[in-house]
Amino acid sequence: MPITDLQLQALARDAMQRAQAGDYAGAEPLFAQIVAARPNSGQALHLLGQTRLKLRRFAEAREPLERAAKFLPKEVAAQVNYAGCLTVLGEHEGALWALDRAGKLKPGDPVIAHNRGHALEALGRLEEAERSYDDALAADHRLMPSLIARAGLLEARGDWLGALADLDMALVNRPDDTRLRLRRGELLLRQGDWMRGLPDYEARLDIPGECYMPDLPRWQGEPVDGRLLIYPEQLDVESDAAKRDTLMLARGVDAVVQCGEMLAALLDGPTARRGDSLEGFAAAAPLRSLPFLLGWSPDAPPPPPALRARGAGPTHDAVIGDDVWETHLAACSGIATTIRLPTKADWLWGRQEGVSPWYPSLELVR
Fold first, then answer.
1. What H or E segment, with its residue span, contains residue 271?
2. How many Å from the N-terminal Cα to the C-terminal Cα in the chain?
3. Which long-range contacts (CB under 8 A, 24 or more apart) does 25-29 make?
4. Helix segments in 206-294, DSSP class H
5. Where are the chain's structural domains?
6. Cβ proximity of 44 and 35 under 8 Å
7. Radius of gyration (Cα) for the chain, nearest Å?
8. pTM score, two decimals?
9. Would you call 50 helix, strand, or coil by DSSP?
10. pLDDT on residue 252
């Protein structure tokens, strides 16, 4: 039985009230009824698609939003919402087409320009993406998504000063954003600027769930009345990264090293396992915080940790390998070692090549 205009008006009122109250699950079937009764209504299609976006039902939102964009060719929101749905679905060419239409309807809009940059970046058209982010920031120089996105593009092509300027501007607007501080810290550290980078790098410890932390006060470099625990911050203590960090960074301080069984048998010093009692410990610090807490220089770090004489690792004349824990073990054992670094190496290496101060007889190649 066909729905009368009065019934459609009542459905529309009920659907809009539910949507405005945040009850998208209740509004969606009502909008679907309206679309079924008026399949060529661009506004009804748009509302149905928007509601499905709110419910994160992106695949189901695509069809009504596509039709809405066709029926409402001069409505910016219809083009932008359709583009947003396509972006989530990974259809970046289609998203770019819809954004170009929206840009013609509303020239100079910073959000449209930013979204266009995002689509171009996803398509690998990086120069065009950077220009779109430039356009967005020319219209709104504090637009956070564009500042952050452009910083990534600038860093990738080696313009770290430009990337740093964008991150600095972003942090003016959001000074307490831990992820932005961490990103700026990592950028500075990769350029060898430990003085400015290390304080920002500590922001990683304030991101919930990112780092393992024992139930002890965080050590800030002060004298302690009791034992100090130093530990790898990786959630898996037996991971390659945790073992590598332990061999590289468990140095320069009188402390107990928390580590896995394998390294406990190799390190010539006090160790503890995760899960052991923390009684008697006054504080703890992650290994990657030691350069900051102890004021290390990248050109002259403290001597590496001592290894037990028996079973202390490989006995080869020379070792060549990647930046993994086994290669660090060889270097720590005094074996002539070459570590091959990727283009984007760990910030701890800085911009070094050739003979390295981190281990005796260590050479770095990129």
1. strand 271-272
2. 74
3. 25/55, 27/51, 28/52, 28/55
4. 240-249, 261-264, 290-293
5. 5-204, 227-293, 318-365
6. yes
7. 28
8. 0.81
9. helix
10. 95
3-state secondary structure 281-335: EEEEEEHHHHHHHCCCCCCCCCCCCCECCCCCCCCCCEEEEECCHHHHHHHHCCC
Tell me the per-residue pLDDT of 52-87, one tens digit each, with 9 for 90 and over.
999 999 999 999 999 999 999 999 999 999 999 999
Contact 219, 293 (CB under 8 A): yes
Half-sphere exposure of residue 68, counting CA atoms within 13 Å on the CB side?
A: 24
What is the Cα–Cα distance from 244 to 221, expressed in whole angstroms? 23
Nearest Cα to Cα of residue 79 among 66, 91, 92:
66
Which tens digit of pLDDT belongs to each residue from 252-282? Answer: 999 999 999 999 999 999 999 999 999 999 9
Q: What contacts 324, CB < 8 A, 6 or more positions away?
A: 240, 244
Helix 5-20 / helix 42-54 crossing angle, nearest 10 deg = 30
- In whole angstroms, give the CA distance from residue 264 to residue 275: 14
d(CA 345, CA 96): 34
Q: Is the dihedral of CA 278, 283, 289, 295 positive or negative?
A: negative
Whether 102 and 79 have beta carbons less than 8 Å apart is answered as yes
Domain 5-204 CATH class label: mainly alpha
Average pLDDT, the chain: 93
What pLDDT is recorded for position 8?
86
191-246 pLDDT tens trace:
999 999 999 999 999 999 889 999 999 999 999 999 999 999 999 999 999 999 99
Tell me the two tokens of residue 183. 């990103």
Q: Count of CB atoms within 10 A of residue 190's CB?
A: 19
The model's pLDDT over 77-119, given as tens digits with 9 standing for 90+, comes to 999 999 999 999 999 999 999 999 999 999 999 999 999 999 9
